[in-house]
Amino acid sequence: MDGEGVTLKVAGESRPSSVAGAICAGLRVRGQCEMQAIGAAAVNQAVKALAVARAFLEAEGLQLVFVPSFLDLDVEGLERTAVRFHVRSREEACPLLTPDP
């Protein structure tokens, strides 16, 4: 993440609840995080993790937003396309859309 934090690498075998915990930690500490997933199973787990993280954060009064994009990576000499998820707290991403308390 360009020195701003850690990029979470999600695999098809990743536990969504564990990834969700890492997403929540990133949002609490930095207000943002990034995930990368290569392959359908990994993207599926990443999306599940986003849903779980949303529920975790909702209990704290926080909301998350994310923007997916494609990223070409070199993995062991082979070019692979990953899906990258830029995840932000709604307050960080859209301060004008966040209702006043």
How would you summarize this macromolecular structure in one to three sentences?
The protein has 101 residues and is of the alpha+beta class.
What does this 3D model show about the protein?
The structure is a single chain. The protein is built from three helices and four strands. It has a four-stranded mixed beta sheet with strand order 1-2-4-3. By secondary structure, it is α+β, with helices and mostly antiparallel strands. The chain is globular and about 45 Å long.
Percent of residues in beta strands? 25-35%
The helix/strand series, from N terminus to C terminus, equals EHEHEEH
Largest sheet: 4 strands, mixed
Shape: globular
Radius of gyration, Cα only, in angstroms? Answer: 14 Å
Based on helices, strands and strand pairing, what is the structural class?
A: alpha+beta
Separate helix tally:
3
Number of E-type strands: 4
Report helical residue fraction. Answer: 25-40%
Kindly report the spatial arrangement of strands forming the biggest sheet: 1-2-4-3
Poorly predicted tracts of residues: none
Report the mean per-residue pLDDT as an integer: 88
End-to-end gap: 31 Å
